[in-house]
Amino acid sequence: MVTLPITSHVIVRRATASDLPALEWNGELVHFRRIFADAYRLMQAGEAMMWVADLSGVGIIGQLFVHLYRQSGTAKHSPPYAYIYGFRVQPAFRGLGIGSLILQTAEAELARNGFHRVTLNVARDNPDALRLYQRFGYRIVAPDPGIWSYLDQNGVRVQVNEPAWRMEKENRLFGNRRG
Question: ∠ CA(4), CA(10), CA(15), 5° rounding?
Fold first, then answer.
């Protein structure tokens, strides 16, 4: 009997409004409800993209959001770039290729849409994510203090201190992955 890899049962697709409750992972991420809603509004306005990994019979097991920065005003000569955030895979499904599948899908669509520079922050205490990004050709360009805040589901401002590495991938590597 041949067993197919789990990734053959996963569909990576753009998020829909009906996906928003599922992004909270049965309450585990309810505190990010407003971030999810804001990302969806930005996607509707053409300023962001959101992908979900949907496992048949299980539901959403991964997600990745991208904020799009296009040329404007003072940055007329700056090429557009994208910033990845909100990238996560449910713990039970990590290490199975789901993150790679989501990242490949996002990069391919970004490239098709003219985004050949991608940045992201990865927590310094997350070596598995760091290795994933490095396999995909991202390189550390600077330390980042990782100080940010958000409004939780009750409208309370939450301060986050998550030291990170700023990583970047340029167009000459875009869409390429080292084994």
Answer: 175
Residue from 62, 59, 56 nearest 84 by CA: 62
Task: Judge whether 119 and 83 are in contact, CB under 8 Å.
Answer: yes
* CATH number assigned to the domain covering 8-169: 3.40.630.30
pTM of the model: 0.89
> How far, in Å, CA of 16 to CA of 13, rounded?
9
Q: Which amino acid is at 157?
A: R
Query: How many CB atoms lie under 10 A from the CB of residue 124?
Result: 14
How far apart are alpha carbons 100 and 142 in whole angstroms? 23
Residue-by-residue pLDDT tens, the chain, 179 positions:
655 688 889 999 999 999 999 999 999 999 999 999 999 999 999 999 999 999 999 999 999 999 999 866 555 567 789 999 999 999 999 999 999 999 999 999 999 998 989 999 999 999 999 999 999 999 999 999 999 999 999 999 999 999 999 999 986 545 454 44
Domain boundaries, the chain: 8-169
